[in-house]
Amino acid sequence: MSYLNETHDPALQSWVDSANVPDNGFPIQNLPFGVFRPQGGAQDFRPGVAIGGKVLDLAALAAAQPFTGQAAEALDACSGGSLNGLMRLGQAHWSALRLALSRALRSGSALQGTLEPLLNDMDKVELGLPATIGDYTDFYISLHHATAVGKQFRPDNPLLPNYKWVPIGYHGRASSIQVSGQSFPRPVGQTRPSAEGGSPGFGPCERLDYELELGIFVGQGNAQGDRIALDEAESHVFGLCILNDWSARDLQAWEYQPLGPFLSKNFASTISPWIVTLEALAPFRVAFERDAGDPQPLPYLNSAANQAAGALDIGLEVLLSTQQSRAQNLEPALLSRSNFKDAYWNIAQLLAHHTVNGCNLQAGDMLGTGTLSGPEQGQEGSLLELNQGGKQPVKLPWGEERLFLQDHDEVILRAACRKAGYPTISLGQSAGTVLPAKA
């Protein structure tokens, strides 16, 4: 696990003025990684790090060779159009680079003259998919979401018997994952027959939904046949992003038995462009607690260290704008808020379980948490929960209603860590817009 070091000092200030603005989200204590290029240009994407309202060009910085040791080796890996090379090096290299960047960006740094010309305005760059994602696994780790959805289909038995024993997941589609700003056509497919034994319907999805999730990027992988032990699992995690795993609920209801989601999930997924390292999130660790009345995890999913600090206090929120609200210049409507710390399984458990059978993970692989809903009203992570299975329309402040998403709706997911006396650490946002179905 990543614990506190000098990079987490809340008193640190940067010579990049915008990084010192309260609640800017990207203070010197954050330093998330991504890839970027100037807007409107034909240049290739290159690795960068966010600091306030700027993006530091890591590929250009590598040419200046300002660091030594593992930090220099890590910086040399920041080339090409993805972060995969850096991810493969492992935690010691990531931490060394983050420390070197923190020192170089602090007020009074002797390297200010070297770094300052390599800064780009955040609002003048295009952000790309931060890694080449080889494989994508989506989990289902919110007990509150699983219970709420299960009640709609199995009122007397909402949770299946295995839920509290094993992290449930399925293999998703990596090729359709894009970054914030993604627009995609409404999916088309088969839906459940209107009468028992009849022919299924076919056409554009009518129950399109979002899912509020986090994405977990794998760094250093494991050899096929080798397991990742629980207390070593987080050393294989490069960092986190925000994930919207769009879902076609009517397609899903027809296709999901017996093998689970397929076309209802693989048409689009939208992530935030910045990956916030686990090290940056260390100040927001909290105890991972399991109700004493629930089954306790099997030994390979349980340890004292994991119980003591295996959860993360990350606040999440969902907002919605529509064609009508944007025409009236209205702010997006806040639909819900929840928190990652309420999940039933945590990051280390997901990696330990994913590899317990010898499955090999690789740098750039992404794990989705599944929808992150909370225990209270107003903490729902999907429309399916908010509208009680399509029975209760969600009322928007400007007079519209939604059961499910309509064409030209934009869903915005945000995530940030906040606590008294510490700068806000933002994961950025994941925004996506639904376009009409293609003919």
Question: Your description of this structure?
Answer:
There is one protein chain. This protein has 439 residues and is α+β, with helices and mostly antiparallel strands. The protein has two domains: 6-127, SH3 type barrels (Roll); 136-435, Alpha-Beta Complex (Fumarylacetoacetate hydrolase, domain 2). 19% of the residues lie in helices and 27% in strands. The protein has helices at 58-64, 69-76, 84-89, 91-105, 112-115, 143-153, 249-255, 304-309, 323-327, 347-355, 383-386, and strands at residues 33-38, 46-51, 54-57, 119-121, 125-127, 136-139, 169-171, 177-179, 182-185, 188-191, 201-204, 208-209, 212-218, 237-244, 247-248, 269-271, 276-277, 285-286, 311-312, 315-321, 333-339, 366-368, 394-395, 401-402, 410-419, 422-435. Helix 2 packs across helix 4. The longest helix has 15 residues, at 91-105. It is globular, with a radius of gyration of 22 Å.
Secondary structure blueprint with pairings:
Blueprint: E1 33-38, E2 46-51, E3 54-57, H1 58-64, H2 69-76, H3 84-89, H4 91-105, H5 112-115, E4 119-121, E5 125-127, E6 136-139, H6 143-153, E7 169-171, E8 177-179, E9 182-185, E10 188-191, E11 201-204, E12 208-209, E13 212-218, E14 237-244, E15 247-248, H7 249-255, E16 269-271, E17 276-277, E18 285-286, H8 304-309, E19 311-312, E20 315-321, H9 323-327, E21 333-339, H10 347-355, E22 366-368, H11 383-386, E23 394-395, E24 401-402, E25 410-419, E26 422-435
Parallel strand pairs: 6-22, 8-16, 9-26
Antiparallel strand pairs: 1-2, 1-5, 2-3, 3-4, 6-7, 10-11, 12-15, 13-14, 13-22, 14-16, 14-17, 18-19, 20-21, 20-25, 23-24, 25-26
